[in-house]
Amino acid sequence: NIGPEVLEVGNSLVRVGVSLLINNWVPDTYALDIKTLDETYLHIIYNVPAVGLGIDGFAAGSLTIMGNEYGTSINSDLLVDDCIINLGQSSSEPSNSDFSLFTDMKFTTGRKVQFIWPTNTIPILRATAEPGQSISFKMDNTSSTYSINGDVNIKYGGIYYFQKSFRLSEGSIIFNENESKFDPLLDFKAQIKEVD
User: For the whole model, what pTM was predicted?
Assistant: First the structure.
């Protein structure tokens, strides 16, 4: 076991602990525990092309990575701030790897968390979430399964569709998604923006 030790990462304080089980001078299993301290945030970039999910923002909370020669699991409980969550198109490429990856992540929205669809460069939907909304993401690449679940209340945003702009004043995005379907339920109050 190493740590836990408090490290400075950029402007953030992070407590890191490492556990290794070594067999014949080779790591057999490992665990890495990371937790931000004093309400500091770390920049995270997390992309899952098979799902079409991309996250780029700042996060505080805990992250655990555990594994062995056969696979890795990632578990987290993160508060995200100043973040863009891209709900783009999935690549739907099956995994050809014998190495398993299991992910169980919980995200809670803080300030300035935007949902974008389909891309950040040409968004049809751009919606800013209310703080305190929770989303869970689970993935298992060996069975090619995933799920995204959560009800997210929207504070404001916009939709650009068929050359018309709509201003969102309130609403929600309801995620109950899996590998068979990605079709979030959108429920918004919107007004058309007149353009001269």
Answer: 0.84
